[in-house]
Queue: 2 jobs
Job 1
Amino acid sequence: MISLLTHSNPLSYLPHSSPTPSISPFFTHTKTLKPSKLKSLKINSILQYNRKPELAGDTPRVVVITSGKGGVGKTTTTANIGLSLARLGFSVVAIDADVGLRNLDLLLGLESRVNYTVVEVLNGDCRLDQALVRDKRFSNFELLCISKPRSKLPMGFGGKALVWLVDALKDREEGCPDFILIDCPAGIDAGFITAITPANEAVLVTTPDITALRDADRVIGLLECDGIRDIKMMVNRVRTDMIKGEDMMSVLDVQEMLGLALLGVIPEDSEVIRSTNRGFPLVLNKPPTLAGLAFEQAAWRLVEQDSMKAVMVEEEPKKRGFFSFFGG
Ligand SMILES: Nc1ncnc2c1ncn2[C@@H]1O[C@H](COP(=O)(O)OP(=O)(O)OP(=O)(O)O)[C@@H](O)[C@H]1O
Ligand SMILES: [Mg+2]
């Protein structure tokens, strides 16, 4: 039996969602359920939500997953949120816009099935549907890679090419997808500009460290200059033991620094690395892990254009709680 209590050290900040339905109760139900009741909940029971999230906004929702600093979890977020959305019944096309260093195919376990890329489509060497790789687990999830690994951005390939691609995806016979997720390369050079051009919303992934935050702040400015006003953030690799020891910034600190709506908070979890190496995204794990549930909950919020709040939770001593999952 796994306890879902939420008590923690007062130095820690617990993310608290707005009162939308949630597949994971640790952020939302703590105000309504007594700890004794929460204690007895089995982790499986929290997946039994009683409705499908309502899709807000016009389709396709073109969302770029970006960061500034590299290695903070953009591809992990794209894979896990993408498959969560597909599992919720939405049609998803995930575009790996990382030219030369693509790895979304690896995380999804689809690398052996990528025969063509967008570069070949634009050269007229294949049709768009030949470059789309349909996931065998969820037929409403497709992967599209911009180019082959280790290749360079072809001459003339830029934002306009990606806008054309998004338009072509809208006009496909099987209908317009609900979500087009663009996995952005690190940095703020040509690849970044190309990846953000067709997007009308952004998910900014950051870790709670000062270097990632500085880069994230710069990226927010660039996104806004490009006309992307709907920017939400994911705080990844959060370690509550370090927050307690004041060795890591809290989620509340991060939110105050960046001033963005909070889409999700993902704990540091060795399962993420394991699932990456297996090509089996975390959200498919059974039983689910906390990081997997946090990704699912973020996907739910993305659908409904919802966000959560970081709040401080009072300590209740001598109880093992929610943060014990995080090693806290
Ligand atoms: N919550 C987490 N807990 C533990 N490891 C994680 C977590 N999130 C990501 N990682 C690991 O961090 C590494 C980088 O993740 P990922 O490739 O998703 O980052 P990225 O931002 O896409 O990198 P790049 O900028 O190179 O494209 C991977 O090895 C991944 O398994
Ligand atoms: Mg990546």
Job 2
Amino acid sequence: MNEHLFSYGTLQKEKVQLESFGRILTGTKDTLKGYKLSFLEIKDESVLLKSEQKFHPIAIHSENNDDCVEGIVFEVTVEELLLSDSYEVGDYVRVKEVLTSGKQAWVYVAKKDGYPHYLTYKNTEKKPSALKQEFPLPSLEINEVYYPENVLLTSSFSSEIESQNFGAAQFCSFLRDTIEVEHCLVIPAIVCLRRIPFQIPSQPKQDLYKTATDEGFHAEQANTYLTELEKHFGLPYLPGKQPPLFLRRLENLRSVETDPLYRDLITIINGIVTETRISVELSKFAANKELSGSVRIICDSHARDEVIHSSQFQALGYWLWEEFDEQMKTDASEFYIKSTIARSLPDIERIVHSFMKVTGLALSEVYRIVLSKYNADELIKEMLIAAKPTISYLKKLGIERYQSFDRAIEKERIRLEHELNEMQAKK
Ligand SMILES: [Fe+2]
Ligand SMILES: [Fe+2]
């Protein structure tokens, strides 16, 4: 017995259990929160014969978390679980939920009209902010910390101030990335949903379109902060004439594709990859008590939206994955892995540039210092930390059956070693 099955209806009847599984099940009372009961008229003859009931109760996901459904949680085998699938008619979908007892159990609930359960954010109390937030100008103080300390480079700064200024430069880069990501990765991914030949249910698609409003707001918020921060420190840290390296790499990945469907697919995958990691990254900033209050505020309000976006985009990824054929799964796996690596790899040239700005050292000296600390292994290590939430999502999706992460990372390590050697030679 390795599965739990929660029943609030006819499966509690011994007759139904005997006819479905050939035995009487054992179970305990439990409740399912966040759902309420309705009734469904059964027309399937075989189900009617077993249950002798024309109307079957059906649990519907509720807007109110106080709603609950009483029932019994049974212990069943995997085979019995599959047998019970054939007993339940097409209006039900089997989902895994946590019961009041804390047990994780399968339960048959109402299928929304073409709207799978995983396409909704569970906590309906939380809604994306969609322009309802206000963002006052940040008040910046001297000696504040804007970015987590770079432990590799700390010893190379001649003073605490230099180290803090480097942090401010890193945060400026982070804000620039935010603006670029919203407009160049997330919103384009949503736009492509209209073009691809997979029918995404209308409500979640509409909800995804709404997230574009949040993203525009995040970009505005980041731009306001960036402007103040650059003013505060006297000059822009980065000229910002070209898009950040990760965007250029993602663009290269897309531009080599000749098939327009695949270009759209890569655009969508880039959006999914970004949205699966950003909330975790922002939450870490918001929780870091060493950082300036204004940094934590901006990251916290952004993170609150991104938790919801992450759920929506993960759902989109699951939905598409189910629609893909085997060939497309193979190709999409490759895009997912390449996009994840490109999106999460630290930008060594930008580190060099910021380091030079805050220390005033000559470029060749800065290259010598930075490259003595950052080797390919170190960059891969940082990439894996940033990409952790995305990688665990991709593992759940099952992409490893199609492409090996380890092989892709090894290839990237070799490419990086080559790139760093070239930088060494050039400096
Ligand atoms: Fe955002
Ligand atoms: Fe987002």
